[in-house]
Amino acid sequence: TAGSLAAAASAAGSDPAALFPRDLGQKKGLPEGWRCIQKLHKTGKSAGKCYIRFRSPWGDENVQSIPDAIRVDASKRGYDAEPVVRAYYQVREETAQTARGEHTEAKLEAVQRNIYTRKRKGGEAIYHVQCNFAYFRVATQGTPSLEQAVDWHIALTDVKSSALQRLEAAPPGPPVPLTQGELMQLLRAEPDMFLSFYSTFNKGKLKNLHTPVTNDLQVATEVHQRTWAILFQDAPEDVIQRALKEERARNTSEISLR
User: Fold this and answer.
1) How many Cα atoms sit within 13 Å of 127 on the Cβ side?
2) What predicted TM-score, i.e. pTM, was given to this entire model?
């Protein structure tokens, strides 16, 4: 709930680990009773980085993808998993096509810079916030509250400013557009905000090169850096385009399994 998240953020203080694990709810495609959980690596090379796992009604804590969750659920409940997995992928693709169509038809209207609204069937306005920098895009979930969307926009703008200052001093090479520390700053400021990440590149004749959307910042960063390295290499355009095509297939495959 909003109250429990706010309490967790207050308790966290300077310790971001106190914000985790975060229950992100019943993600679309998960079997009945399953939950999407955002966790934080506390030790090792990945310490401080967030990741997503799925929790079953039977206590399974570390299921890594929705198809895997369906297979675990099928083994417990006694049904054939593969038709359900295929249906999940089909619905996922149809949803993506619908989203692309809605974007093309400009059904998402700008309220102010980086705040957008879309009307539900009943006429209720839902607000989304998007923040773009360094070919990277951070997007919130929807909220019916314009006031909350404005608060999210302020938090995202503050972090964007910090990220751009850091990037100006960064060494040459594939950048890290948003660090885990900057993500922790966002979650402390607005603990009810759930974020998704993707990249949108433009270079010369290559326009609007989108990477798949993911809730995992570490994955989004890896995809961003690989795509950046391909796009900005010193190579003929046909070589770059072939490499981008292969990279898109790799990215789609990797993210679809999460």
Assistant:
1) 18
2) 0.66
Q: ∠59-41-70 over CA atoms, to 5°?
A: 35
SS (H, E, C) the chain: CHHHHHHHHHHHCCCHHHHCCEEEECCCCCCCCCEEEEEECCCCCCCCCEEEEEECCCCCCCECCHHHHHHHHHHHHCCCHHHHHHHHHHHHHHHHHHHHHHHHCCCCEEEECCEEEEECCCCCEEEEEEEEECCEEEEECCECCHHHHHHHHHHHHHHHHHHHHHHHCCCCCCCCCCCHHHHHHHHHHCCCCCEEEEEEEEECCEEEEECCCECCHHHHHHHHHHHHHHHCCCCCHHHHHHHHHHHHHHHHHHHHCC
Residues in the chain: 258
pLDDT, tens digit, 9 for 90 and up, residues 48-101: 777 888 999 998 888 988 889 999 999 999 999 998 988 887 776 665 554 444
The string of pLDDT tens digits covering residues 165-210 is: 999 999 888 999 999 889 988 888 888 888 899 999 988 888 888 8
